[in-house]
Amino acid sequence: MVDRTRIASLRAEEEARFVAAHPRSAELAERARGPLLAGVPMPWMTRWPGRFPVFFESASGARLVDVDGIEYVDLCLGDTGAMTGHALPQVTAAISERAGRGITTMLPSADAIWVGEELARRFGLPTWQLAMSATDANRFVLRFARHLTGRPRIAVMDWCYHGTVDETLAVLDGDRVVARPGALGPQVDVAETTAVVPFNDLDALDRRLAVGDVACLLMEPALTNIGIVLPEPGYLEGVREVTRRHGVLLVIDETHTLCAGPGGATAAWGLDPDIVVVGKPIGGGIPCAAYGLSAEVAERLSGPMLGHEIDVAGVGGTLTGNALALAAIRATLSTCLRDEDFAVAIPLAERFTEGVAGVIAEHGLPWHVQRLGCRAEYWFCPPPADGAAAAAAVDEELEGFLHLWCLNRGVLLTPFHNMALFSPHHSEADVDRHTEVFGEAVRQLTG
């Protein structure tokens, strides 16, 4: 078992090692405390391990170099924003060429048509619109759902994550819907806007939707931001049947589950949603997202979308659908995230899973490692069936130590959880390096 008395002393040693290795990052972090709130451009950057954030200098393929010249195997990949790999030459060329001809005009570009056709081919939904982020796409889709159904609430899974959408920052406290811990300044009581049900619980979903006030169910086909929680056999088919029976639109958020294949879990698992949202990976690092609609939903929306006041409908944004983003999406989807790319990345995730599982078994720990496509995560508990069980097993002390240990040895994991993401630019040697580093850490912890 893990020696808890060792974690603090080992963490102190790793902190000292980190500080000694990153003098330039330390200098920049000190300067950043003046002009930047919390010393970072985005608050979640404070979640990285170490006394201060590491500032990066460059990233290419599956490698990242910080301002102190230290190179890392990047298993974070921008938390899927760079799932294709960093600094793709074809994307760089496309955005450079597009920028030279104009970036944003409020007019469509020809690339938009190609992008819509390609997304339709991949995901099977015929009609698409663009957004700047999956958060925006989810916001727009929730408005559409309430408009089409006349119902006030949306439903989400307990401990889900769909970006910064107000209605989705909700969890269950017993039978009560409450704000997710950490949510700042909710504009209204989230119980007024949102129904919450446990993942993998069809009976709970059926009971809640039977009330008749839910416009849509917004869900990931597998939970990804609380550790990977996979659907039980028959669950997703049951979700589709229950939502249809209660007249509730089914919205699948594929922003993270795109790791399952070129058309995400929707294509890989044969799902039949009314709406699909896909976010950051499709632009090769350029901010963008998209949402696809079934023929029926698109037809029902065609009237409102052509209305004179659509510009104040709460859907859009002046830079949304800009020519730069569309050029990036076209360059990315025409050369990346294809069957041949996943044929390289998924076996690497399988190798990662096997390596971590071997270390866990060697030391007889009650941990598990879970994989979804080219994404894998380890958790300090047996496999959970829902988000609440996964959340209850969070071990910030142990997680923080392991992240810092890996970072100090040139392996970068996603800061929020123990997620590793693989691209065609990674190698078996990269996977084996993590297994070696992880195994060394566990040996130190178990004595």
From TrEMBL:
Keywords: Aminotransferase, Pyridoxal phosphate, Transferase
Single GO MF annotation: transaminase activity
Name of the protein: Aspartate aminotransferase family protein
Species assigned in the record: Nocardioides conyzicola
InterPro entries: Aminotrans_3, PyrdxlP-dep_Trfase, PyrdxlP-dep_Trfase_major, PyrdxlP-dep_Trfase_small
Similarity annotation: Belongs to the class-III pyridoxal-phosphate-dependent aminotransferase family.
Cofactor: pyridoxal 5'-phosphate
